[in-house]
Write a structure and sequence with these properties.
Strand content: 5-15%
CATH superfamily of the largest domain: DNA Cyclobutane Dipyrimidine Photolyase, subunit A, domain 3
Order of helices and strands: EHEHHEHEHEHHHHHHHHHHHHHHHH
Strand order of the largest sheet: 3-2-1-4-5
Number of helices: 21
Bound molecules: flavin-adenine dinucleotide
Radius of gyration: 24 Å
Helix content: 40-55%
Largest sheet: 5 strands, parallel
Oligomer: single chain
CATH topology of the largest domain: DNA Cyclobutane Dipyrimidine Photolyase, subunit A, domain 3
Length: 467
């Protein structure tokens, strides 16, 4: 019997470590609530995780086994369990953040003292960090070249679920409050393998073919919404990829097949950012690209608070920030807009945004969230150049022309026509007062802030801001 230690791979099928644990006998699946990890959690994410764990436990119980649940220090719990059941190997799927790697080396050392091996598997990514490099052997810092190699490389097939599961029961699953978390403010979508598979099936059944056209349209809401599931591993990457390959094989047109490839490109972005985090763990708190003179962020508390609350007077920004509070999720295009607004229009340090997203997003994962923020702040790998600053009004007009998305999340604008919404910044105080008295005036002037942000970045680059 071998142990499989689940962490953010809350599934029984297409799980490399679990399949290895069950290869020659019963697999003993384990989940440990580790307070050192939980202190980085947040209500939406932990709620989704608990939901997913409940289903995983049911899955094992339906097959005559159980998920062994414990709370405490894995460096003590895992060796004790291994010794008690005569286990000589504990399997797990590699984590790529600094925190995960430190935890895993401590556990490996503790197990080793009892003669037990910790075997980690590259399950979460198709191609593990280090496996895709430049011709000079360096990790990639430019996505496009990374993508070409990623796309052309063969992918593994999904793993089967293990045949036999050990029936070793630990604790009951704790509740959110027992773990020290409040109920989430947002409605959290269901977690677990069934919900993940349903999302995947419905996406590859149609919307994937329109991905290229509709991925930037937040009102259409036609992206896969698999991000919380990839975050918690309720569906395996090989399963997702195999479904996209099947969709490509039966694509009704060349354009539809291209849309599938566009979607696969997003799966590769996720892997790219995991590689970046693996090779540059400091990006969690530091800029990937340091500017010579350092960036002097403006960091106005009142402006940052208005951004968090969705009260900036820029309708697309406020709609996004309110979607985040209501659903613990935000559309990708809108994430880009709100992140640009915070870092360029408000000239606030990206870390304020990252912290807020970390608290509120159900799909927050360090690699993607950090990658997204540093992209928007022009401090990241392959980031938006500092001089390309989104105009929040024209972004709203281009990506939500009928203001459908805006009206859904900003009820103060519910009865206002799209043209008026998209020219909100140009209206007089009296006009604004007469059409939507509850909705705020823009808290900053975009054109002025654009100039100031350019000057801020030029100074950071050691250049004369007036040139
Ligand atoms: C400021 C900012 C913060 C972000 N924070 C996160 C985060 O914490 N967690 C997260 O998963 N994604 C994050 N993203 C990336 C992206 O917004 C989400 O992955 C996407 O919106 C999730 O919705 P979806 O599953 O419908 O995406 P789809 O468009 O259906 O994409 C499919 C999958 O590809 C991956 N993906 C898509 N876009 C990106 C991207 N730009 N970078 C990396 N992976 C991507 C995700 O795993 C996603 O589930 C962030 C983007 C920005 C700009």
């Amino acid at each position: 019997m071998d142990i499989h230690w689940h962490r953010d791979d809350l599934r029984a099928t297409d799980n490399d470590g679990l399949a290895a644990a069950g290869a020659d006998g019963e697999a003993l699946p384990v989940f440990v609530f580790d307070d050192r990890v939980l202190q980085h959690g947040s209500p939406p994410r932990v709620a989704f995780m608990l939901d997913s764990l409940a289903e995983l436990r049911e899955w094992y119980r339906d097959r005559g086994g159980d998920l062994y649940v414990a709370r405490g220090d894995p460096t003590a719990i895992l060796p004790d369990l291994a010794v008690e059941h005569g286990v000589d190997t504990v399997h797990c799927n590699a984590g790529y953040s600094g925190l995960a790697r430190d935890r895993d080396s401590a556990v490996a050392e503790a197990l080793d003292a009892d003669g037990v091996a910790l075997e980690d598997h590259e399950d979460a990514l198709h191609h593990e960090p280090g496996s895709i490099r430049t011709n000079d052997g360096d990790p990639y810092s430019v996505y496009t070249y990374f993508w070409k190699k990623w796309r052309d490389r063969e992918k593994a097939d999904p793993y089967d679920a293990p045949d036999a599961i050990a029936d070793v029961t630990g604790d009951e699953l704790p509740t959110l409050s027992e773990l020290g978390f409040d109920e989430p403010e947002a409605d959290i979508e269901p977690g677990g393998m069934t919900a993940a598979q349903q999302r995947l099936d419905s996406f590859v059944d149609g919307p994937i073919y329109e991905y290229e056209d509709l991925r930037d349209d937040p009102a259409a809401d036609r992206t896969s919404k698999l991000s919380a599931h990839t975050r918690w591993g309720t569906v395996g990457p090989r399963t997702i990829y195999a479904a996209t390959e099947e969709a490509a094989a039966s694509a009704p047109s060349e354009a539809a097949a291209e849309a599938v490839e566009e979607y696969q490109g997003e799966l590769a972005w996720r892997e790219f950012y995991h590689h970046v985090l693996y090779f540059h763990p400091h990006v969690v708190t530091e800029n990937y690209n340091e500017y010579e003179e350092g960036i002097e962020w403006r960091d106005d508390d009142g402006e940052i608070a208005a951004w968090r609350e969705g009260e900036t007077g820029y309708p697309i920004v406020d709609a996004g920030m309110r979607q985040l509070r209501e659903e613990a999720w935000m559309h990708n295009r809108v994430r880009m807009i709100v992140a640009s607004f915070l870092t360029k229009d408000l000239m606030a340090d990206w870390r304020h945004g990252y912290e807020h997203f970390r608290e509120h997003l159900v799909d927050h994962n360090t690699a993607n969230d950090n990658g997204g923020w540093q992209w928007a702040a022009s401090t990241g790998t392959d980031a938006q150049p500092y001089f390309r600053i989104f105009n929040p009004m024209s972004q709203g007009e281009r990506h939500d022309p009928d203001a459908e998305y805006i009206r859904e999340y900003v009820p103060e604008l519910a009865g206002v026509d799209a043209d008026t919404i998209h020219s909100w910044h140009e209206l007089s105080e009296g006009e604004r007062e007469s059409v939507a008295p509850e909705y705020p005036a823009p808290i900053v002037d975009h054109s002025e802030r654009r100039e100031q942000a350019l000057a801020m970045f030029k100074r950071a680059r050691g250049e004369d801001p007036d040139e």
